[in-house]
Amino acid sequence: MSIREDQEAWEKTYLSPYAALSSESLGRDREEEPCDIRPVYQRDRDRILHSKSFRRMKHKTQVFLAPRGDHYRTRLTHTLEVSQIARTIARALRLNEDLTEAIALGHDLGHAPFGHAGEAVLNEICPEGFKHYIQSVRVVEVLEKDGRGLNLTKEVRDGMMNHSTSRMPMTLEGKVVRLSDKIAYINHDIDDAIRGKIITESELPEHYTDVLGKDSKTRLNTLIHDVIINSMGRPDIMMSANVEEAMLGIRSYMFRHVYTNPKAKNQETKAQNLLRQLYEHYMKYPDQMPVEYLRLMREGKYTKERVVCDYIAGMTDQYTIEIYEELYVPKAWKIY
């Protein structure tokens, strides 16, 4: 018996009857020889971790565009916090931790530069639309590995596709990530907003902080414990009514006072105009894109609009600005 088979047998013995077992995965689009060491979801986790799109998240906006300071979250640190929260919940509920981690690490791979501001403008200008959760799956199915994709299991891709509020994954592991995403960004965005002097702790509504806690550590502790206690032994992932109401209430407060606050968002219009100009440029001069994107276009499966959107969405904040300056900002002449 291989190490992988040993681990699959352990899952059947130890994990919850509601967990997604590696040996019962719905599989991949392209069949592969099983690994002798790693079950399928662990293998998916490793593929995401080693992907180029995962590394690029370190230079993509979470809330604050190109913040001056080393301690503000980026899309990558957000992803790692989601993974930590989701793994804690999954382990306590005896769910499949490998599947949970793979979904968590991959859920935001498709985010555009400049966060939700970038997503909004790409959705506006691309005729086929743009949603980061759809793009995350497109990244792992099509764009990684020069068009071959990562060939991930259906369960991981389902969790990535359905992590947003309006959607629902088919596995409990996916549902854990969906909830952990909210828990993570609500708490770390409060922390970043306080650091950025957008709000103060005392300004958070007391009828929510009385339930959740008066600091980040306490709020995280409350939310994670509540999910575990209310989901234990059940075929669903849920929270108590009062804690969920407080979490959604403080989320609404953040939308009103932080996510749309001019101080936090005063560069968004510039960023969106920049992306519009880059989109128009590459629509006019598609041959200036890297060869892997040209190949996608020439294969005839995808429109020029979709591929141009793919290229821009994959850029980091810094690279987007550098490309824009190279194309549109004149450089001072000097003798070399």
Structure description:
With 336 residues, the protein is an all-alpha fold. Helices cover 60% and strands 0% of the residues. It contains 17 helices and no strands. The protein starts with a helix and ends in an 8-residue tail after the last helix. The relative contact order is 0.13.
Strand content range = under 5%
Please count the beta strands (DSSP E, at least 2 residues each): 0
Return the string of H and E elements.
Answer: HHHHHHHHHHHHHHHHH
- The helix content, as a percent range, equals 55-70%
CA-based shape: flat
What structural keywords apply?
single chain, about 325 residues, mainly alpha, 17 helices, about 60% helix
Write the layout of secondary structure elements.
Elements: H1 3-14, H2 40-49, H3 52-56, H4 75-92, H5 97-106, H6 115-125, H7 132-143, H8 154-161, H9 172-195, H10 206-212, H11 216-231, H12 241-259, H13 262-265, H14 268-284, H15 291-298, H16 304-313, H17 317-328
Helix pairs in contact: 2-5, 4-5, 4-9, 4-11, 5-8, 5-9, 6-14, 7-8, 8-9, 9-11, 9-12, 10-12, 14-16, 14-17, 15-16
Summarize this structure briefly.
With 336 residues, this protein is an all-alpha fold. Helix content is 60%, strand content 0%.
